[in-house]
Amino acid sequence: xxxxxxxxxxxxxxSLLATALALPWMGLASPAHAQDSVLKICQSTALTGPLGDxxxxxxxxxxxxxxxxxxxxxxxxxxxxxxxxxxxxxxxRALTNVDKFLADPDCFALFNCMGTPxxxxxxxxxxxxxxxxxxxxxxxxxxxIAGARNVFNIRASYADEADKAVQHLxxxxxxxxxxxxxxxxxxxxxxxxxxxxxxEAKLPAALNATVENDSSDAASAAAKLAExxxxxxxxxxxxxxxxxxxxxxxxxxxxxxLYALSVLGxxxxxxxxxxxAIGMAVSQVVPLPTNTIVPVVREFQQALKTLGAATEASHLxxxxxxxxxxxxxxxxxxxxxxxxxAFIDATWSLKKWDLGGxxxxxxxxxxxxxxFVELTLVTRDGRFMR
Length: 386
Hints:
By secondary structure, the protein is of the alpha/beta class. It contains 12 helices and 14 strands. Strands 7-6-8-9-10-13-14 form a 7-stranded mixed sheet, with helices on both faces. The protein has a 5-stranded parallel sheet with strand order 2-1-3-4-5, with helices on both faces. A hairpin with a 4-residue loop joins strand 11 and strand 12. The longest helix is centred in the N-terminal third of the chain and has 20 residues.
């Protein structure tokens, strides 16, 4: 999730990475307690707080996948236990949670920890420990580090999403594209990617405006872009800044299509925008969770039903489910009584693996294993359609 750029205390990230790569994996060569029938993986995520709905949905989707695997006897006879601690989308709490996990010799891997601020804060500890850090929930480049083989990113990046939107607009003949972006590392990543894609499409340079994290200048940014008479606006914002910008811009230019990234595409945000959300295009990094033509979506819906959770079949729940399914596949490939090092090796063997309408193609640590991005539209009843 987006956030301001976080300072990383000395030693630097580069020196930590060098240390991590030089370590003999600090015990990672030993089997993950072969005498036990349960393999423990650990997650710090937001189950409460401002983004608790996001974290809870992803958590329930992952639980559904692990429960289905456990019901079949586990992975090569070993059941998976997902231990989750709530960090409330708070950096200090996330650091405390991860410290607990790193101190626990039974913690096999960190799984699907949520949020750019939290991922950025814990990354030095992760690199130093060498513990598998599987599917962190962020599209930011800060988790995609060259040489960091213990960090395995799945979801498409924010840059991938911005590029998809620009490509689509160029294809349908839109030339005057404006970009509004958050005045932080997330927003600048989106803007840089959009600007590059616009240049490659040989379109005029984008009119642009920034919005502060407290959204205090959202209305002035909306007025500036509206004056430029754009045909479409790409929104590199999340949370309150995004909501405030959309509410301010809509009355000024009702016919202009707004393009947002997946971080805006939650039920809570769509509900908060009300009529202003209708017709908005939102990029998604997993398939439509109601499209049962896609095999992995059918399996996801069945697993969610079997789990008995009251969780909606949302994009976020499906993303959690997919992350867990990929983890299970890598664990299967790591063999019986896997070491953490063997598991890490197994993640990088996932090349052109089709999960059933969703491909995983691991290449290098600085690239995510999925490039899936599709555009959806918000309907009058607040749902997403392709």
